[in-house]
Write a structure and sequence with these properties.
By secondary structure, the chain is an alpha+beta fold. Among the domains are: 1-30; 97-232 and 431-466, no CATH class; 304-400, no CATH class. 30% of the residues lie in helices and 15% in strands. It is built from 13 helices and 15 strands. Strand 11 (366-375) and strand 12 form a beta hairpin. It comes from Aphanomyces astaci (Crayfish plague agent).
Length: 491
């Protein structure tokens, strides 16, 4: 009882003090908490900055790792890209994505190691041969299972066949990559015993990791600083036209008694008609998730929505705005095509000039795109709208006269959103990322050729290139400049 009485008296005294000093005490506590939070935020930003800046240093290997070898999630940078990634290459129409992924990882590993050792300049890289690597894998896997083809390989073959491949990666100059199917074995230079015996490229694969979820992929990417090949199931999508408006008003496939039901993305109609000649190829360079996905490969990279749309300024309207010098200059400044040529005469007239006018969303990722049609023979023009089409179909209807090549040193890569990974993996599985612990022998580098006179470095030297990097990121319009500083425009 006494103890309880004391507690009550202490409690009573505390609440008696609070009305007198409560507000100053609360203010003091708030100030202390704000100071603690400020210190913590400063430390977090400082650690993150130090982490990103020191990934290539030995200290990074111990500073931010737990005892189990992982990285504390809170210390991961919000954005991260590995260094020394070599320029993209085009696999064309062959099923050699696994080949290119493997070679890309090996090129980055080789370059990273060479720069760290001082055997390569930071802007130098050596390009390896995908053609030769595919042949070497087939040599090790002859038999009916491979059908004498590089179709359908896997990135992990680098690990499982590493004893046979450790001296079987060749510089790209050994033979050209054949872009058309049916030429998987084409590389006569590999028949030369001297080329094989004198090849200086040599490596060992000490370990391979396989990761399936976002967290472990991010951890390994930041921890290793190495490029990691991505393997995923590609999907195709059957896009649909909704049975609304005049476009399909008389189509028997829109009969409610027998029609195909629309997917969830098209709630405005009950009946839908499948779009013709589409394979779900995406035009923006990324892979998108869709309720109608089916397992299949392939994607496209032509983007008709990048065509320049003239605006009606300076009193110029309609076709006059398209033909004005300002439109020509502004299209060139923005590196966008202005003049379009007819490719599919089912929708346009060859020999006439077309200018993009506008577009309206329609149906399932489809668009109604309109143009100005100009006849240079009699200088007449008219308004033309295509029926609802996917972007890829629009790109096959017209082609641009002006083509602005991307920077091949820096551009050309795809991106794969994590949301898409999650949805595709849940439906079809087949997604994983590999990491390889590769050790390159000193003989592999041109800088060490004097130590290995029995090896031939001519192919390595011929396959050594430089890759420039931008001095700074200047936003999405790096070529922009003042065109008419005294005249306000809406461009």
């Amino acid at each position: 009882m006494r103890s309880a009485s004391v507690e009550r008296r202490q409690s009573t005294k505390w609440w008696w003090v609070m009305p007198m000093y409560g507000f100053p005490v609360l203010m003091l506590l708030n100030m202390v908490m704000l100071a603690v939070l400020a210190v913590q935020l400063h430390r977090s930003n400082s650690l993150q900055s130090r982490f990103a800046d020191s990934m290539d240093t030995p200290a990074a290997a111990t500073m931010y790792h737990t005892r189990g070898g992982g990285i504390i999630a809170a210390l991961l940078p919000i954005k991260f890209a590995v260094d020394h990634v070599t320029p993209y290459k085009d696999q064309a129409r062959r099923g050699t994505c696994w080949d290119f992924s493997t070679i890309g990882a090996l090129e980055q590993s080789y370059r990273k190691h060479g720069v760290a050792k001082g055997w390569l300049d930071s802007n130098e890289y050596v390009s390896f041969s995908e053609q030769a690597y595919g042949i070497e894998v087939m040599e090790l896997c002859t038999g009916p299972v491979w059908r004498n083809s590089t179709e359908g390989g896997e990135v992990p073959l680098l690990y499982y066949l590493h004893k046979g491949l450790k001296e079987s990666v060749f510089p790209t100059r050994v033979c050209p990559y054949t872009s058309s199917p049916g030429h998987d074995w084409d590389c006569r230079e590999l028949d030369d015993a001297f080329v094989r015996k004198s090849n200086p490229l040599s490596f060992t694969v000490n370990d391979m990791g396989t990761f399936y979820d976002q967290a472990s992929i991010k951890h390994k990417l930041v921890q290793s600083g190495l490029a990691m090949p991505v393997s995923t199931t590609l999907v195709s999508v059957q896009h649909m036209y909704p049975c609304v408006g005049k476009f399909l008003s008389n189509d028997p496939r829109c009969d409610a008694a027998t029609c195909q039901l629309c997917p969830p993305e098209l709630p405005m109609a009950t009946c839908c008609v499948p779009a013709d000649s589409t394979h779900g190829q995406n035009m923006d360079g990324e892979f998108l998730a869709h309720s109608g996905m089916q397992v299949e490969g392939g994607h496209g990279m032509v983007h008709p929505f990048n065509w320049y749309v003239p605006t009606q300024d300076d009193g110029l309207v309609d076709i006059a705005a398209c033909l004005s010098d300002d439109s020509v200059q502004y299209a060139a400044l923005n590196r966008q095509p202005l003049h379009l040529t007819c490719v599919d005469d089912a929708y346009c007239v060859p020999g006439r000039v077309y200018f993009a006018k506008n577009r309206t969303s329609y149906g399932d990722r489809m668009h109604v795109m309109c143009f100005w049609e100009y006849d240079p023979t009699d200088k007449s023009s008219k308004h033309l709208c295509l029926p609802p089409m996917l972007q890829e179909t629009i790109a096959r209807t017209f082609e641009p006269d002006e083509v602005y090549e991307n920077d091949s040193d820096l551009c050309g890569f795809y991106f794969l959103p994590y949301d898409t990974i999650s949805q595709v993996s849940a439906l079809f599985q087949g997604f994983f990322v590999n990491s390889f612990d590769v050790k390159w022998a000193p003989q592999s580098y041109l800088a060490n050729r004097e130590k290995f006179p029995h090896l031939n470095y001519s192919l390595v030297q011929a396959s050594t290139f430089t890759q420039h990097s931008p001095s700074r990121f200047d936003g999405p319009f790096p070529f922009a400049h003042k065109y008419k500083p005294m005249h306000r425009r809406r461009h």
